[in-house]
Amino acid sequence: MQIQQQLKISANQFSQHILNSIQYELKEYGQVNVDKDHIRAGITYKKPLTTQMKQTDHVTVEITKLEKSPFEYEATFDSTQGRNTIRYSAKDLNENECLVTYEEDFVGKDTMKKLNHKLMRVFYKGRSKRRIHYLLNAIEDHVLKGE
Predict the structure, then answer these.
(1) What is the pTM of this model?
(2) Using CA atoms in the order 3, 59, 77, 71, what is the torsion angle rounded to 10 degrees?
(3) Which end of the chain, C or N, has fewer beta carbons within 10 A?
(4) Which residue ranges form the domains of the chain, and what is each CATH number?
(5) pLDDT at site 85
(6) Quick one: pLDDT band at residue 52, thresholds 50, 70, 90?
(7) Organism's domain of life (predicted)?
(8) Is it the case that residue 123 has pLDDT exceeding 80?
(9) Per-position b or e across 20-47, b if 16+ CB within 10 A of its CB
(10) Strand order in the sheet with 56-68
């Protein structure tokens, strides 16, 4: 699944928000206090994650790519179900606007999990897209309000 959305913030503001979120998760779940400048590809930590079926699973998160300019972030989430990969990229359209691209892929651990994911994706595709648009709008609002 890929979603592109124009935001009324710069690519740098977007990237700083994502880095702040990563920094928070590293402190909360990885129990490591890392400066934003030291966040890099290869960092891993474990965290609980609620699935679309409202179940909690513990996942291992690995930052697999982090480029600061132009901003690109990729992370994998390994669970008992399989591997979910998310990617964000942001590029400036002008001084106060950027285009964010969000991508998400899932690979099941076995054939049944792969088939189940394909079936469930049909039911949850619209919901997933709305969730991502809501998330990107919330990031934009958060940055604009200076929180």
Answers:
(1) 0.86
(2) 80
(3) C
(4) 2-144 (3.30.530.20)
(5) 96
(6) low
(7) Bacteria
(8) no
(9) eebbeebeeebeeeeeeeebeeebebee
(10) 2-7, 97-108, 82-94, 71-78, 56-68, 44-50
